[in-house]
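Posting this for the archive.
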Amino acid sequence: MTVLLIDDDHEVLDASRQTLELEGFAVEATTRPEDALDRLGPSWPGVVVTDVRMPGLDGFALLERVRAADPEVPVVLVTGHGDIAMAMRAVRGGAYDFIEKPAEPSHLVEVVRRALEHRRLVLENRSLRAQLAGGGSLEARIIGRSAAIERLRTAVAGLADAEVDVLLFGETGTGKELIARSLHDAGRRRAGNFVALNCGALPDTIIESELFGHEPGAFTGAQGRRIGKLEHADSGTLFLDEIESMPMHLQVKLLRVLQERVIERVGGNRPIPLDLRVVAATKVDLLRQAGEGKFREDLYYRLNVVTVPLPPLRERREDVPLLLRHFLDAAAARARRPAPPVDAAALARLAAHGWPGNVRELRNVAERMALGFGDGLAGGPVTGAGGGGIEPLAEQMDRIEKQLVEDALARCGGRVGETADKLGITRKTLYLKMRHHGLHRGDFAEE
């Protein structure tokens, strides 16, 4: 991020440059505003701080030229001849801020810092939107840049055309139906129906009819023929969510369907051949359920040809900004209002959250943010501070850093060298951070 400093007074220019450089900013200083315009554009990572009264191209004319190149480049106007009328003109012209000379160094630094943060967020949001819009079908649908999501997309791409049934395993809210639809849409069965059934949402009395259909008179109230979910999914895909909730007597019939690809409607005797793929999903360990007599072991092994694990959001926190931008844009479009900006503090709070509801919870957060409810986090501060208060920034950042280091060590099996490489820091720095946070390598070592 760069501060482009423009002033025709060499002494003022040097003084402002030194003030900003002492605060760690990268500064490009010039007395010729025309020279600065060539580098500006939608991807330029910086802000403009310019004098107003200059020979040739003055500050207001420069502001117009900058906004023509990119209206979201922050321009800070500085003048020794300011008045209310000039300040109003600056605001109406789209200036980020207006400072009177001689500029108080601390005030100049604070304005520039806020302007750079604004520009950084603008560029980050543009990058996220470009990734969402410009990726291929799977990249645009299965959103994320983490290693876990890359592996998931690779698995979906490899299984899309494979004629095998698939078992999806993941916590609530990890996107099991999304992955099932992606398997269907990316495969050769995309022209057929995608039929979803939540096995835990239907009472035992009607789930058999929902699955297999029925003939007229099969039971009281069955006045006509009904095509069931299995038959409706012929040539397509049947998605059975919460498969662990399926009654035991229906598990036997489902096993026969998976083995023979034939059904009989309730109250009927005619076998009906089917050509379909079954994708089942569960949030529990089905093998353990089978050992406890709560799920048929033979059905488990029939479903478990290929199991695809779905990572919880807490294990891919780096995907939170991209997912948040996607959900914010969608929610804002539905609400017919512009998507709100997300500042660094809000992203830090979101990154520190445990996400027990996973992606579904993040989507709800985005909905609340789009409607103007702050950072969208319900039930008090996400960091766990009691009483609804705000913790000091240093304490919040300290806890966030500890969480990120813990996650990285856990993913790398406690290997310090690999963890340091992944985090982009030296071994010594990582050891110091581990000591500071009371972390021990052995706590994360793989067994």
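The longest strand covers residues 46-51. The radius of gyration is 29 Å.
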